[in-house]
Amino acid sequence: MTKIYDALFDEMRDDTDVSAIVGAGTNARVYPGIPPPDATAPFVSFRKTSYTRLNTLSGPKTLARPTFQVDCWGSNNESMVSLSEAVRALLDGFRGNMGDDNIVVRRANLVGQNDDPEDPSDGGGNDVNRNRMDFEIWHIE
Under 8 Å CB-to-CB from 40, ≥6 apart: which residues? Predict the structure, then answer.
């Protein structure tokens, strides 16, 4: 993973409110990229959807603005809402050092959010409730 991926992973894994729902430390159900098919809800998955680096006439700067899609999954609507609220409270408006590597985050902003339930209408599996949130994370590279 890149440093900002690692920082986001560390922050969600180590946050008290998020870890109360998905587990803590190495047992935390926080997955960068595609979650494993046997992942037990509730859990969080996240992926980078865009990455912008700022430039001026003198060249590239060290300030970057990736957008991450953070999906909060629940076995029912209640667990999905609780998890998404914990993640939103952690990341929306975040400023400071993030993760074990202390990545300097100037600001994290929630820029979009929607519920995306998956109905196993094909007869297989269980209902899965998902809340998608998009965060812009302005940070120093």
Answer: 29
- Domain 3-140 fold: STM4215-like (3.30.2000)
Neighbours of 4 (CB within 10 A): 21
Helix axes 77-91, 3-14, angle to 10 degrees: 120
Single pTM value for the model: 0.88
Q: What pLDDT is stored for residue 119 in this prediction?
A: 58
φ, ψ of residue 2 in degrees (nearest 5): -80, 170
At 7-32, the pLDDT tens digits run 999 999 999 999 999 998 888 999 99
Distance CA 4, CA 88 (A): 18
Q: Residues 72, 133: contact at Cβ < 8 Å?
A: yes
- Enumerate the domain spans of the chain: 3-140
**Token pair of 112 as six digits:** 């979009």
Q: What angle (nearest 5°) sits at the alpha carbon of residue 90, between those of residues 135 and 62? A: 50
Strands of 30-32's sheet in order across: 30-32, 43-56, 59-74, 129-140, 103-115, 96-98
Range list of H helices, the chain: 3-14, 16-22, 77-91
pLDDT < 50 stretches in the chain: 1, 123
